[in-house]
Specification:
By secondary structure, this protein is mainly β. Helix content is 9%, strand content 46%. A 10-stranded parallel sheet has the order 1-4-7-10-13-16-19-22-25-28, with no helix packed on it. It has a 10-stranded parallel sheet with strand order 2-5-8-11-14-17-20-23-26-29. Strand 30 and strand 31 form a beta hairpin.
Length: 446
């Protein structure tokens, strides 16, 4: 009996130790580079990009994540002087905590349903919209006098959902280039404490009861500046601070903050989203939208089969200058069978550029091969396919009476075929055959 109890005790202790290691696991970066590379994490263990509910992730290097990032319960720490770029949406919930001492850049939207704190020396820039959910989950700065500052920039709008509150403290600088709104639930607190500085390029519109817009800067500079009105904040005990200024007031009385706001708005494009639209039978439709465009020229759409090596497949002209939502789309009429990746790149008028999030697409259309260029110069052709060959590919070039003029075996499509004896002007047939696929393509030689 005593032996059985000892064994049971050891089993309980082992279980507790296992749970401690499982639920308290820490991840620490070890090199600069991609989040998904095992060599960039101590021990080679990569934190999950979705659903992680335990442990601590320490960003001590400059990392880039080309995907959406969401977690609940875990803690994310970004060290001073280090940067995390998330090329996608960012979402936290549950008991999660984010502590930003360095830099966090989010190229799409952010949903903050857990503690999100920016400390002096920290900087967060969100290129889409931000939603604060359910509590005082967004806190910028501390009570320490600046510098350094804690910076928070939203290129789109900021929305309070289920009474999500925002607190701007003494050493905080905030710039929101869209509007500040709520979902009508009520009880939202937007608080600017003494020393905090906020610029909203549009207005504030709160519709729920008990909402409070508070500015504790009692003397000039006001610390709260709006380039639009405060509307609808009158229901059931809602209050609005009297001490606030306009953009003109900010520009005339608070030059250092004005210069900072202007420096934060220089990017040519604020992207709201980039995603795949509903599948079309024989093509892939991509959709995206911008909230802001400044001196912007055009988009480049790039495609990849592995998510690493991309090639340009199209360009789409931008609007140029806009502060309203602009929607765009592109239809890829020659998509790749199976899984492929699309990436969006913005090009400014001065040639500067920026990459946005990567979209993965699974396409199940018909397999096809084309010849490029057509007409050809007779010395070479390129085979372009929307699928990867599972076996060797036999390529034949025939004249109009069926004589084989050139024959070659290649390992895959998307290859250049150099023709040994240059073809004379006329019409030829290119016959392509591989496991489960065959096609004859008519080619003209000039």
């Amino acid at each position: 009996m005593k032996s059985s109890n000892i064994i049971r005790s050891f089993a309980i202790i082992a279980s507790l130790i296992s749970a401690t290691f499982s639920y308290g696991q820490n991840y620490t970066s070890s090199n600069n580079g991609l989040w998904t590379a095992t060599s960039n994490w101590s021990g080679g263990s990569i934190p999950a990009t979705s659903g992680q509910s335990w442990g601590t992730i320490n960003i001590n290097h400059n990392l880039t994540l080309n995907a959406d990032y969401s977690f609940s319960g875990a803690t994310l720490n970004i060290a001073l002087g280090k940067q995390l770029v998330v090329n996608g949406d960012f979402s936290i919930s549950g008991g999660a905590t984010v502590n930003v001492y360095g830099t966090l850049a989010i190229t799409a939207d952010a949903i903050l349903n857990a503690n999100f704190r920016i400390y002096p020396g920290g900087s967060v820039k969100i290129h889409g919209n931000t939603t604060v959910v359910n509590s005082t989950y967004l806190t910028i700065g501390t009570s320490v006098a600046p510098p350094p500052y804690a910076d928070f920039v939203v290129m789109g709008g900021l929305r309070s959902q289920s009474s999500g509150d925002v607190t701007v403290n003494q050493n905080a600088r905030v710039a929101i280039f869209g509007s500040v709104t709520d979902d009508g639930t009520g009880g939202t607190l937007f608080t600017v404490n003494n020393g905090g500085q906020v610029y909203i390029d549009d207005g504030i519109s709160f519709t729920g009861g008990g909402n409070k817009i508070i500015n504790n800067n009692t003397t000039n500079p006001y610390g709260l500046y709006l380039n639009g009105p405060i509307t609808n904040n009158t229901a059931n005990g809602s209050t609005t601070t009297n001490n606030r200024g306009s953009k003109a007031t900010m520009e005339s009385t608070n030059i250092p903050f004005t210069n900072w706001v202007n420096s934060m708005s220089v990017l040519p494009v604020s992207l709201l989203f980039f995603q795949q639209a509903n599948n079309i039978t024989e093509s892939v439709m991509l959709r995206w939208a911008t909230a802001i465009e400044k001196n912007f020229n055009y988009f480049v759409i790039e495609r990849s089969t592995d998510g690493k090596k991309f090639e340009e497949i199209a360009t789409v002209k931008g609007t140029g200058n806009s502060k309203i939502r602009i929607d765009y789309n592109f239809e890829d009429n020659t998509p790749i069978i199976g899984k492929s990746y699309y990436r969006l790149k913005s090009i400014d008028f001065d040639g500067s550029f920026e990459y946005f999030n990567i979209v993965a697409v699974n396409f199940e259309g018909s397999r096809d091969v084309t010849v490029s260029p057509n007409p050809s110069n007779g010395s070479s052709i390129n085979l372009v396919s929307n699928f990867k060959a599972s076996s060797e590919v036999k390529v034949q070039i025939l004249n109009n009476v069926g004589t084989v003029l050139h024959e070659e075996i290649i390992n895959d499509f998307n290859n250049r075929i150099n023709i040994q004896n240059e073809l004379k002007p006329g019409t030829y047939l290119v016959r392509v055959a591989t496991n489960g696929f065959a096609k004859v393509i008519r080619v003209v030689v000039d």
